[in-house]
Each structure stands twice: as structure tokens, then as C-alpha cells.
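ENTRY TYPE: paired fold submission
RECORD: A
CONTENT: sequence, then C-alpha cells
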Amino acid sequence: MTQEPPFRRLTKAFLKVTTNEPFVRARWDISRKPQYLLGITEAAKQAIFEGISSISAIEFGVAGGAGLLVMQEEAEVVSQKTGIDIRVYGFDMGTGLPQLIGDYRDHPDIWNPGDYPMNEAALRQKLSPRTRLILGNVEQTVGQLLEPPGIPSLGFVSIDVDLYSSTRAALNVFRAAGRKMLLHVPMYFDDVDMFYTHSKGGELLAMKEFNDEQHDVFIDQWRGIKAFRPFPEAPYLDRFFIAHDLKRISEFRRERAAQVLPVEMH
């Protein structure tokens, strides 16, 4: 009954002042960025299931840094609760959107060069040692980050770089041959349900092309995300997807079967 209108709002208000338990807050959308808290908690649960002790949470498109600071804060809380080491990475140009915005696929009717600049010095002062800010063209910086020794397994990825071209480059984080990722990586795409959104441009096109080109990793809707949630109508839920590592899923199941088989034979 606490999840039914009008009681759900009273319950949320009560929980907001009485708990900092991350999994409870993720269920009730109690965060300055509930999408980040939900993505990180689900990634931590998946890491526990797989026996992985360290994961990464990535924000593509830092802008002023408000989101990155929330990601950092929530990652620390979830890490303390679960024991999973969560490292945070933020990618951005640092100077706003690039000067060369492309054709209709980049939505030049909406975005302008230099939109969303960053005060780098002020932001860096607020970052913890567990958070790394990476500035430059994402097409180059993603590749550099994945070079040995690389980063912990991809756990949660948020993409808010606005442009088709930048989104396509950001998805290279899943294209690298040496990538490490959870079997199922929650992904948040910020610009997939706007008035101007269409499947011939922006994040939707970049995602489609990625799926068309790839065989081992497939990005699909997060099915069932609204089930049993107190506020299933929250708009941000429609912006969630999952990157599935199809190859490793098969290998993981075989490994599990090999571990179980001797016990069954005995």
C-alpha cells in the first residue's frame, strides 16, 4: 500500500529524510540524479553476481560537472554498501560542443558550437581520487583509456554528448578488442525521447549503427525496468538501455556448467 497513490509520495518524503540506503533510494528515485543511482546500483548487483570486485562508471558529456559529481557521490555510497570498488570517469571536450557540428545527424538545428563549456579548474577541485576527468576529443581519449592496463570492467555508462558523431565515438568503449565489461551493462542515453529526436540521427542512429556493425555486444532496451517501481511513469526510465556482451555470456554459462558438472556426477 505504501507504493500506491497517494501514499507513495508520503512514503518517498519519509524515506528521503530517514535513509541513505542506496538500493532503497534507487527504487524510490531519491537522488539528484536518480538515473545515475539506478545504473550504479544495478551494475554493483551484476558485479556481485559475476564475482567481479571492481567496476567503472562513465559519464560521456560532463559539461559543468554537476552530473559527474553526483555520479562520484553515489558511486562512493554504493561502494561502501557493497564492497565493490567503483571508479568514475568523465569524458568531455572541456570547451563545449565541438566547432564542427555535422549534418542533420548531429541536429545542428538544436546544438551550437561551444554549448555547455566547463570550468575545469573549479571542477577538478571537487573530484575525489577515485574520479578521473578526461578532456579532449572522445574519439582519441576513449582509445587511450582502454590501452593496457586499462580500466576496471565497464559497469555503468551514461551518454549525454548530444551529437550523433560524438555518441558514435563514445560507443567505441564497447568496440575495443581488449574491453572489459559486465555481462549486462546499464546504459543511460539522455537524448532519445525529445521532440526533435528521430532514428536517422543523434543517439538513436549511433546506437543502431553500433548494433549493425557489432556481433559480440548488443545494445537493447532495458526491458521490465518499470515493473514493481513506485513511480513507473518517471521519464528517465525510458532512456535506459543495456549493453549485452553476447560472446562472454556464452562463455560464462559454459564456465558455470563446467563448475557444476563434477558435483552432479559425484
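RECORD: B
CONTENT: sequence, then C-alpha cells
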Amino acid sequence: MQVGTTEQVVKNYLRKIYDKLGVADRLELALYSMHRKLLDTYVPLPIERKPPNPLAVSTNGGLGQEDEALDADPDEPGQSEKR
């Protein structure tokens, strides 16, 4: 869905709101709202956590112990003791 409003129009509206409330930016607006209890409650947004990718390239420049464990074939005996 597109509204057809430019970024500059939104900035102008925000500036008018800031001026009327006597705040300088969004942070001050949030603090103003919280101080005057204009917000019902604080509900944190859920953080989407992704499981680590076992196929990702190592960031330590080579195979470390953790990387070796990921590369080991669980069906092959003796693979976990390999160095």
C-alpha cells in the first residue's frame, strides 16, 4: 500500500509536532510521552533470533575447534577425535 506522501512532507509534520510540544527530536518526543503517561504500556517488540548457520565461513581465519566439530561427519567413526 502506498500513501503518496514524500519524505519531506513527513519531516514537516514531525517538525510541527516537535515545535508544539517543545521537543527537539523523536527521542525527546518518546520521553515526553512516557513522562506524561501518554503511552498505555511499554510492549517490547519480539527479537527475531536466527540459529547459527553451520555452513557459514569462519571469521577467525581458519578452522577452530568449534568449526572442526561442525565439519565432522557424525556417521564416520573417529572423526570427532581428528585434529
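NOTES ON RECORD B: The longest helix spans residues 7-21. The CA atoms of residues 17 and 38 lie 15 Å apart.
STATUS: closed
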